[in-house]
Design brief:
about 110 residues
Length: about 110
């Protein structure tokens, strides 16, 4: 799995580096309602936009997965409770986990 991540990461990093080197031109970015003007390289604007999109996408995915995580935790709690109840019932009935009753086990030979 580690090799697969390197196989994907290295070409992606090379593409980002090549993109950054070839797009060093400066453009003016105007933050209109605030009257703020800044000059930035093209690659900085594009890579910052990609990073912001990646982070916002991760946040949206995390929020939409909240219901599934809650259901999963509730199911884990229910399963643990049922395991405890089953163990208690087996102790009360005199059965061990293999399903034998204590009286079904033959006493050791004399």
């Amino acid at each position: 799995m580690r090799w697969l991540s390197w196989i994907i990461l290295l070409p992606l990093a090379a593409a980002v580096i090549v993109f950054s080197v070839t797009n060093r031109g400066v453009i003016k970015v105007d933050f209109w309602p605030f009257g703020y003007l800044i000059e930035l390289p093209v690659f900085a604007i594009v890579l910052t936009s990609l990073l912001i999109g990646f982070v916002l996408g991760g946040i949206v995915a995390w929020i939409t997965g909240a219901a599934r995580r809650l259901r999963g935790r509730a199911a884990e709690r229910d399963a643990a409770q049922l395991r405890r109840e089953l163990a208690e019932l087996r102790r009360e009935s005199g059965r061990d986990p293999s399903g034998r009753r204590d009286r079904d086990v033959l006493p050791p030979a004399a």
